[in-house]
């Protein structure tokens, strides 16, 4: 009976000098150590052995390529994470110029400003100088909010809302300033409650020092 076995086992058993036949039996391709009874062809075992070695080398090269690609992807991911972590700290902090601050000081000295508006303008000058010293992380859009709020202090209405918008912006851009703004707001609320109680009892609220 003709022996039909897988090619790899056949080569291992027969050695590189044995004759190998590639036969077609019932529509299927099989390999044998004997000549095909019907359709088939003789193969060179030495060539097949070389092809087997070449395939092993190809598989090793593919494995190395996959390892190198994985290492490159990991390195790229690490670099992106490092850049993302360093981005905010490395980004430029946009601040008012000395000329801008001089203009703010001029507006703050106006006698037409209310006490609250003047205090706000002085706070904005201080915040601008803090920014120049590297405190906080501001953008050009942030200082646009500040300028709009400064302009609103000269109007008869809208000044208080503009101050709150600017203070919210500063709280987001500079956590330290945000804490100061929060404490100041608490003091204002406490004073307002105190004055309301005095007025309810027919007394005047003393002026702030």
From TrEMBL:
InterPro entries: DUF4124. Residues 177-190 have a biased composition (Basic and acidic residues). Keywords: Signal. Residues 74-96, 147-190 are annotated as: Disordered. Residues 74-84 have a biased composition (Low complexity). Residues 1-18 form the signal peptide. It comes from the Bacteria. The keyword Plastid does not apply. The keyword Signal applies. This is DUF4124 domain-containing protein. It comes from Roseateles aquatilis. The lineage of its organism: Bacteria, Pseudomonadati, Pseudomonadota, Betaproteobacteria, Burkholderiales.
